[in-house]
Design goal:
Radius of gyration: 20 Å
Number of strands: 0
Distance between the termini: 38 Å
Helix content: 55-70%
Mean pLDDT: 82
Low-confidence stretches: 1-9, 11-23
Strand content: under 5%
Number of helices: 9
Largest sheet: none
Length: 223
């Protein structure tokens, strides 16, 4: 299952409409069934976080890693002969089953705590949170992200926001380097080295670390 499908699964899970739980199981092992159930659990929790709910307030951000986890699970099932459509339907059915069970209990917070913790632990084993990125690396990643936006889209709100984030992170990174005793040329050199390394990383196929780091960078750019 490619990344666009994994993100589509999460996007559908975040919707407010009911999802029919009619898909036939696609897995033969208990481990695979557990993984599919955890994709659904993480999608529901990520949805709650995006809406500012309380069910997943004390958990780390789940949207990016949850999408990656969905991709990993899907890739393994497809490699064993399942179709992408069957995998998608199985995940959506699991989401629907858990949504319905939670609604009958009153709210998404009624997902069993043991289930939530087990799925988050599985996510942490499969896709560990990387060490916090440095400010120079965040400045580089955000600048690269902005530079990848087509010129025709530079006037969009999203593009202007990203430009602002890149500018803020660049300023904070340079201030931090100068505060540590770096001279102007040394600061420029370190910023340049961070940019070169980031460019190599983001051009790698399926470079998940950069995606996860960028999520942390957005937090660093907050006032």
């Amino acid at each position: 299952m490619n990344k666009s499908i994994s993100f589509m699964v999460l996007a559908l899970a975040l919707g407010t409409h009911a999802l029919p739980a009619h898909a036939a199981p696609v897995s033969s092992s208990e481990q695979e069934k557990t993984e599919i159930a955890c994709v659904a659990t993480l999608a529901i929790l990520a949805s709650d976080q995006e809406r500012g709910g309380t069910a997943a307030r004390n958990l780390p951000r789940l949207s990016t890693r949850g999408a990656m986890f969905a991709q990993h699970v899907g890739d393994r099932l497809v490699a064993k002969g399942q179709t992408r459509e069957a995998v998608r339907d199985a995940i959506l059915a699991a989401v629907a089953t858990q949504q319905n069970a939670a609604k009958q209990g009153g709210a998404m917070r009624d997902l069993p705590e043991a289930q939530v913790q087990a799925c988050v632990a599985m996510l942490d084993r499969e896709i560990p949170v990387p060490p916090p990125p440095s400010l120079p690396r965040c400045a580089a990643l955000s600048a690269i992200a902005y530079g990848s936006i087509p010129m025709a889209d530079h006037k969009t709100t999203a593009a202007r926001d990203l430009q602002t984030i890149a500018s803020v992170l660049d300023h904070r990174a340079r201030e931090a380097l100068r505060a540590s005793g770096k001279s102007g040329p040394q600061t420029d050199a370190e910023m340049g080295a961070a940019r070169e390394l980031a460019e190599v990383d983001v051009t790698r196929a399926n470079d998940e670390r950069s995606e996860l780091e960028f999520e942390a960078c957005l937090e660093m750019a907050r006032p």
